[in-house]
Amino acid sequence: MSSYRPILERVYDFKPVELPPLRQELERELRRCQDCGVPFCHASGCPLLNAVPEINAAALSGRLRTALGVLLATSPFPEFTARVCPALCEGSCVQGLHTAPVPCRQIEYAVIEGGFAAGLVHAHIPAQRTGLRAAVVGSGPAGLAAAWRLNRAGAAVTVYEKNARPGGFLRYGIPDFKLEKSVIDRRVRLLQEEGIVFECGVEAGADISSRLLGERHDVLILAVGTGKKRDLSVPGRDAAGIHFAVDYLTAQNKLNGGEIAGLPADCDAAGKRVLVIGGGDTGSDCVGTAWRQGALSVCQTEIMPKPPEGRAPGNPWPQWPRILRTSSSHEEGGERRWNIGTLSFATAPDEAGRRERVSAANCAEVSWESGSPVPVPGTEFSLPADLVLLAMGFTGAEDGALTQASGCAPDRSGRLPRACALPGGPKVYACGDAALGPSLVVRAIDDGLRTAERVLSEANAG
């Protein structure tokens, strides 16, 4: 049901590409939802356990206040998930057995945005404070969710964010054409009205010591995400013009947000041949961003095999369908290739003759017969590139001053331990991607809520 602005219009700006759903389309889809016998969407699909059938039934009958209340009972930030969630609920939708699933994400968008427009979404200030002082390090989806839940329970919550503005990966890692940052600002204002304090431009453990954090707070929650990026160790990797995708996206988001006056030269795709290595959402976001910057060409490679168009026999409903997905950015142009491994990068001196710049990626097709990618002899080829973006995911949380001081160093998988403590200080908890490993926004929100519940339970027991 998703509809987008015309390609020849949207590639010239960073405004949202998706159009709000039309009322008549929503009504048709809401009726389809009510034809379901036994819903799997909320229990098998949604990590937040959103009561999708009840939300949709209320929306169908025009009871916006009721639909909004049921949605907000399980989801603190539906305006985020309505825009960037892959909609796990739709993967287990009963209607999706034989036809297209009910577009739960777009319905969620209509409910939450309708609620904001009608003035039904407002701050809930706790009636009393419990005396519990909590610090949340990181203001991404997990950190915001943990802070929201603790504050609702009466704790005094301070969120520490190393960047200039709150939002974490929501603000700096997701392009404006998917999530406009005014949506984050609107929610942060509500959280501030509810009593949450945001300390931005402050790196916990460095700008404020672990000792001082321990003196100020009774509990500390690390929602620092997975900052370690997966790299590509091949000849030529150190050449100019090869960057991590998230750094590239962050630069554009900071420019859009007025934090910087111009793009660094190596984060500007204008007039360049762009190669994106990695086929996930971040890679797709790089494709859309490169076109908007004026790229000459864009190619995206993925080392994994091309997914099937429909469910494979080993991927039955109601499992999440592991199928080929084409994003709005892919629709805007460029080439996509699968089963491609990068062997090395070709380089050439820059205009000043001072440094080698990337000029091409030397690649080969790979075989997965052994369970690992093995280059196929005789399939070698080169892809010309002036800008290479590595979008191969993340390997775990960074081990910084705060994790070292608290003894919460990442394990071999890159995850922080769920609980530890500052020496002689408060208990420390980890949540979101930092504890789960790289995952989805909706799972980060859910884990932030669960971690806050654990904190409250242990505080009450103590």
What does this structure look like?
- With 462 residues, the chain is an alpha/beta fold.
- It folds into three domains: 111 residues, Orthogonal Bundle (Fumarate Reductase Iron-sulfur Protein, Chain B, domain 2), CATH 1.10.1060; 162 residues, 3-Layer(bba) Sandwich (FAD/NAD(P)-binding domain), CATH 3.50.50; 162 residues, 3-Layer(bba) Sandwich (FAD/NAD(P)-binding domain).
- Helix content is 35%, strand content 18%.
- The protein is built from 18 helices and 17 strands.
- The strands form four sheets. Strands 3-2-1-4-17-16 form a six-stranded mixed sheet, sandwiched between helices.
- Helix 9 packs parallel to helix 18.
- The radius of gyration is 23 Å and the shape is globular.
- The model has no long low-confidence stretch (mean pLDDT 95).
